[in-house]
Amino acid sequence: MSRGCATRMSRSYIPKSLREQVSTDARRRCGYCLTSARIVGAPMEIDHIVPESLGGPTTRENLWLACSMCNDHKGSRIAAADPITGTVVRLFDPRRQRWTEHFEWSVEGDAILGKTAIGRATVGALRLNRVELVEARRGWIIAGWHPPAT
Length: 150
Hints:
Layout lengths: L15 H10 L11 H4 L4 E4 L14 E4 L1 H7 L4 E3 L6 E3 L8 H4 E3 L6 E3 L2 H9 L5 H13 L7
Antiparallel strand pairs: 1-2, 3-4, 5-6
């Protein structure tokens, strides 16, 4: 079991300075659903983009922030099937890929739409439009907090 704010599944201790660097890099929001820790009032988790269980290192280059629900749904996966083509593709890598190249907000702003196979596979695998999150986004829209700048 890890200490500090490291991911529940993480085996390695992540020093506070590294957690802070990753948090700053990620603009203190989930790399997948873009939910801000400031809005939900809950700390983000450190996600190993390539999980430790698959040989991913505990280095800044392999770490990003994720909300607990996205991180739970991602688990140790690095790939999923595109629901349109059925082709298995790598999941979105928030450190190396641009969110806007793979995703966009619905017209209403409450749902994330996959624009590419990577985007569609990630939306499905991480359940980026889970009912509770879509409902929360609707409230955030009314408050003027959403959608976030990408």
